[in-house]
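Extended Data, panel c. Modelled sequence:
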Amino acid sequence: MNYLETLKNIAKDKKKRNENIILLIVLLIVLLIAMNVIFSDSNKNRNTSSAQENINSSVEETNLNDDLERKLEVILSQISGISDVSVVLTYSKESKQNVVYNTKEEKSDTDSSYEKSVAYNEQNGDKTAIIESVELPSVEGAIVVAKGASSVDVRSKVANAIANVLNVPVYKVQVFEKES
């Protein structure tokens, strides 16, 4: 009962009551500021991780594109009379990720409605969308520079090979002789 008597005495004394109210207000302000800092840091971390995922996706896409160019350079250098090959590919768009959606259908006597929302995977408090498939960018054209590509016959073979591998028309493939 000692605490109860202390509280009653504090409530009776107007000076102490005013001091306690001021102290309580200051503590609430400090608590609000602390909560704001904590939650804004967690949002920044989520935004940073989202930005990092976009960067990683872009890096992976660039690696895939570079890998395709390197593979073409290796295979083209095996053609008789061709050596020191460089390939540059142009793409029509960025890659696209198709996400999985949760659909909810509600039917009533007169209406039916659909609710569609992105499906998420949650790990350690981070939400990431579930990816169904990734559409890689389509190749629009190619430039090939190689030693030994001076004759029309060799350039034609290289252009046809590139066109077949990339599924592009031959007129979108340019082949040039590399300077010695």
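The chain has a mean pLDDT of 77. This feature is highlighted in the accompanying rendering.
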